[in-house]
Amino acid sequence: MKRLVVSLLFFLVVSVVVGLLVSGSEFLDWGVAGGLFAIAVAGEGLRFWLRRSRAKKRQSSGI
User: Fold this and answer.
1) What is the structure's pLDDT at 61?
2) 55-59 own/partner pairs: CB under 8 Å, 24+ apart
């Protein structure tokens, strides 16, 4: 769980920085920052789901 929080926090900071860099005259490009963070959340969710499904396969017995 700690890895998930650290990873999402890292991607949040990266997406905000990219949003600031591409914003131009505005303060922050929320579309870019939000889109990048949404991709990161989806990727972490997929990684979590795959790990969980693999663990369930190992746990099930063939008996």
Assistant:
1) 58
2) none
pTM: 0.74
Q: pLDDT tens digits for 1-60?
A: 788 889 999 999 999 999 999 988 888 889 999 999 999 999 999 998 898 887 777 765
Distance separating the N- and C-terminal Cα atoms of the chain: 32
CB-CB contact of 41 with 27 (8 Å)? no
35-42: long-range contacts, CB 8 A cutoff, minimum separation 24: 36/11, 37/11, 37/12, 40/7, 40/8, 40/11, 40/12, 40/15, 41/8, 41/11
Could you state, in order of their start, the residue ranges of all structural domains in the chain?
1-59
How far apart CA 20 and CA 14 sit, in angstroms, is 10
